[in-house]
Amino acid sequence: MTVSQASLFPSRTVTEFIEDVKTLTKEIQDLYCLDQIPWIIGVSWGKDSTAVLQLVWNAIAALPQEKRHKTIHVITTDTLVENPILSSWVRKSIEKLEQAAQEQKMPLQPHLLYPALQDRYWVGLIGKGYPAPRLQFRWCTGRLKINASNRFILDVIKTSGETILVLGTRKTESTKRAKVMTELEKKRLRDHLSPNASLPNSLVYSPIEDWRTDEVWMYLMQWENPWGSSNNDLFTLYRGASADNECPLVVDTSTPSCGSSRFGCWVCTLVDKDTSLSVMIQNDEEKEWLQPLTDIRDELDILDDRDKRDFRRMYGQVQLFERNLNGGISIEPIPGPYTKKWREYWLKRVLEAQVQVRNNAPDEYKDITLIMPEELSEIRRIWLEEKHEFDDSLPKIYEEVTKEPYQDTRLVVDNHVFGSDEWDILADICQEDTMHLELMAKLLDTERQFYAKSHRKGIYQELEKCFDSSSRQKDDAIKNAHLHRDIKISSESGNIDAFKEIIQAKDNSQENTKKVIQQPVKEKENPNKQLSLSWANLKYPTQPEEE
Known about the structure:
49% helix; 6-stranded mixed sheet; two-stranded antiparallel ribbon; 8 strands; Sulfate_adenylyltrnsfr_sub2; Rossmann fold
């Protein structure tokens, strides 16, 4: 919950705020000149981080050239699923910052960071099948934003021993943020520098920690941007992303502020439906070309998506959990990744949106890319190598949607033995039995993978994993999970009688299955022929020959 903004009057007058800016300028200069510890400014190019960057720039610019002795790294993380309007603004701002720093001999060096390929959003959702992020499974934030920044910070620490991280965090952003910042203040060993809870040998400096939202805007609008960007344009971006299309002056606690607008990933399912992107479309007819993106986001934002997901977890096993249902407790499987059908569907939808946007967007956005070529290649690799889906459907989907030939950035993936023809034959043999098709595909492709290796050590363990994850039908797999859960509960509770009863029922069930399989062969067929136990004769028992 966002903390209500305090009134501009009488908390602090404009004169008092100007004095605070002067005090912060001197504070920044003193900290900068105190030692050789490199600085890293984390910038999202929203209002808060822009205000901090402008404060630091103006303070360092006031120093004589000989005192600008250490580099200040300005880092920005592009998740590759950012709001396209803001993404364009960020890139232009970085270009202006870099150019101005060179011209004015400022020690600021911008860095545009990206998530590692395996951490990217579409690789996770379409490739591996991760469901759209929820508060209970927020798999995106660390992979898309935190990891890339932390890698850069750790590299600086390895080189210099420590670093000072300058951030635009403010206590008035939320009660949780205020509590965390206050607790870290108590652990300060140096003035103004708090310890970093997640990264050792790094200190956090938050110069505008006590500013209110209206004061942030006052500074941005009254102090000229030193690297040539327009703070008025930033103001317009926030106003366009506010539902009422306004950024009013905050005069009391009931007045809304455009500072409440938040920019972020256009696919985000962790926020309410009324995101900045959809409000931009609402406020500006010229941005209607962005509608396909909000359509995909709304389609992903379904609370109950069990019909789109596997009944097993990512590792192929059924995991049960207690769910409150109609006033009672229901023991049900935890839904797993998106099924093959739905992963292919999401790929098709993203490519369709990309085609639509390119056809309808203004000239400056005509080359917009929603899913990068290297991401498509990684998704294809995951489907082929990890999920054993050797029908290799990605190139076909790409060409059907884009009407362009698919060119993989890694040609090695084209050297595979099986293809869509073999998959279709296997599907015909297995008929409607999807589990049998999955098992056969895994077994065949596992053998194919080991065939290409110089040694086959570990093949039996890998084949065993195929049977463990795919040899049971859905109902049987869930029943087996319940059995193991009952055994665990009875053993932990010390109920010996219940434990024996469960084990006996399990043994009886296995014995009955064994008797069915090992029934004697009729004499008229071939009394000397023994029925061998295999998956094939379990699934397709031999029929007596017609006389």
